[in-house]
Please model this.
Amino acid sequence: MRVTCTQPTSSRHRTRAPDRRRIASTGVTVKPLSCGRKGRPALPPLPRDSRRSGRYLLVMDTWDAIRSRRAVRRFDGRPLDAAHLDRILDAGRRAGSSKNTQRWDFIVVEDRERLGALAAVGPFAGHLAGAAAAVALVTPDPRAPGTPLSVMWDLGLAAGNMSLAAWALGIGSCPATVYEQAAAREILGYPADRHCEFVLSFGYPADPEDLTRAPRPGGRRPLDEIVHRERW
Ligand SMILES: Cc1cc2nc3c(=O)[nH]c(=O)nc-3n(C[C@H](O)[C@H](O)[C@H](O)COP(=O)(O)O)c2cc1C
Model:
């Protein structure tokens, strides 16, 4: 599967009309935006800004997206393109769920003041204040008697879909765990029988190099440390 999307250029790609170029450290390929697939319009282009002199398509296959994605907590302040935000939400909606129960609702927040308030729902939620958008993930209360653990499995799949779809569009994201439940409920107004354990921040990274930087050495445990074959 290939994912084709718009992506602002970084300084190292500013020179004239490079052909499709693969960034060796991550396997991510960039090519000029004009090369969009014939008959299939690219997503609406990102706005130009003073730091970027051109636009590029970022062609990322599923593996590239999985291995290059990282948590991004600093954003450049631009609002998300509406088509990009829709794509992210749709990616969450398309996740599989236990018995296809789809026990999730997504509350999208773009209002700067509300984003600022959300940054106080946990000790590590500060990145929400600078995000272009937050998506609060709302479920039935996972601790209510009789609620199966699969609610959180399903929510993780939806969140993973959103984060990967965003990444392939050149958009960074990071979860924030909600510690202050009452505050989150007050800010977001969801019903008493619902619960919000996580809020995702989304935005174009303050440092566009975040999107193509090589994975941090030691950032993930090696396969042979975590994989057990046949038996533990
Ligand atoms: C369930 C879950 C909760 C998380 N909660 C927070 C959080 O409250 N604040 C935060 O800054 N990052 C949070 N993170 C992001 C993790 O810190 C991040 O995924 C991890 O450090 C790996 O980062 P990397 O992908 O950049 O290597 C959370 C991640 C997960 C999966």
